[in-house]
Design goal:
9 strands, 10 helices, nine-stranded mixed sheet, single chain, alpha/beta
């Protein structure tokens, strides 16, 4: 794939950038998941410089993780095994937690992994290959669902796997240029945050509150505006496996999450404008989803399990998201809320 010429502001060495991996955590209910996520980073074929565990305003969890990964003791275990436990230095929420990790990190590239996901062994190696082109400022990967029940619910359409934080049907395969990467499986050059700022607070998730999203979309659009020559990629070989808990396999969560996505898109559009904020969503809604409905109806005619349910879920998801967007747009206009990028530090080098 050809790429635009590199901007003078993105001159990081293509040789072998050092990676800091940020994992944000907020609840002890995910204790085993957190440990598994860290272990998957430590097992990378291309070692990370460090793993930063950022705890979101949960002192009990932070203390427990400090004991699990005694500060300073992991250095002796070799490259990629150092784990640093930090408290979220900003307001509650995923965006501020990520910004805390960015500010404390030492690597040339900052990668993000969900606290309930595990990365395949070559995850960072595939990310690093993308950065061989100095014009590339962000590389994301493919996120595969691991269903608590052991299998995908018959009614759950692959076109809506983003509902459970995973790569969905409709994204192009291979290594491709994209508008935005997906935040739970992504990486950015440090210079990207210097150019565009960090994640905007008030858009994404906040603990156990309504499952909002969109903070990575808003950041990537802002980054592309700040550096028009910047290239953002998704490489589907950079794979993580994301656990989907039982309650998220039910239609009630599907409906809530799609409605929340509409609210989120309204906030993103408020921040970066509807043209860019909804550019990819228009293609998705006019091409991918109609094809999914047709496929579901065809499966129903052929008496394949879940066909009608998948077609119905796509329609219901579109309506819920549209309703959320309408409500979110009205609220944004009435409140006059505007989001500004959070500044992040240059990292704790040395």
């Amino acid at each position: 794939m050809s790429a635009p010429a590199a901007s003078a502001d993105f001159t990081a060495s293509a040789a072998s950038p050092a990676f800091s991996v940020v994992i944000c955590a907020y609840t002890e209910d995910r204790w085993e998941d957190i440990l598994a996520a860290v272990s998957s980073v430590r097992a990378q074929s291309r070692p990370a410089l460090e793993t930063l565990l950022v705890v979101d305003h949960n002192e009990a969890l932070r203390e427990r993780l400090l004991k699990e990964y005694a500060q300073g003791e992991d250095r002796k275990h070799g490259a990629g095994r150092e784990v640093r436990v930090l408290a979220n230095a900003g307001p509650r929420g995923l965006s501020a937690g990520r910004n805390t990790g960015i500010a404390a990190s030492r690597g040339e590239v900052v990668a993000f992994l969900d606290d309930d996901a595990v990365a395949e062994r070559d995850w960072l190696r595939h990310f690093a290959e993308g950065y061989a082109d100095p014009a590339v400022v962000a590389v994301g990967g493919r996120t595969v669902p691991v269903w608590a029940s052991g299998r995908r619910p018959d009614w759950f359409p692959e076109e809506f796997d983003w509902v459970v934080g995973c790569t969905y049907r409709g994204l192009p395969p291979g290594r491709v240029r994209v508008r935005n990467v997906l935040g739970g499986n992504a990486s950015f050059r440090r210079e990207a945050f210097a150019a565009a700022g960090g994640f905007a607070t008030g858009i994404g998730r906040d603990g156990d509150r309504r499952p909002l999203g969109g903070e990575e979309t808003e950041l990537c659009i802002r980054l592309s505006r700040a550096r028009p020559g910047a290239v953002l990629l998704i490489d589907d070989r950079a794979v993580i496996h994301h656990r989907v808990p039982g309650p998220r396999e039910h239609f009630a969560y599907f409906r809530t999450r799609t409605y929340a996505e509409g609210l989120s898109k309204a906030l993103v559009a408020r921040s970066v404008g509807a043209q860019k904020g909804l550019e990819s969503e228009r293609r998705y809604a006019t091409r991918v989803l109609p094809a999914g409905v047709v496929r579901g109806l065809r499966d129903a005619v052929l008496a394949r399990p879940g066909g009608a349910g998948r077609a119905g879920a796509i329609v219901a998801g579109v309506l819920a998201a549209a309703g959320g967007y309408a409500v979110g747009s009205v609220r944004a206009r009435r409140s006059g809320v505007a989001f500004s990028p959070a500044p992040v530090g240059e990292g704790a080098h040395g």
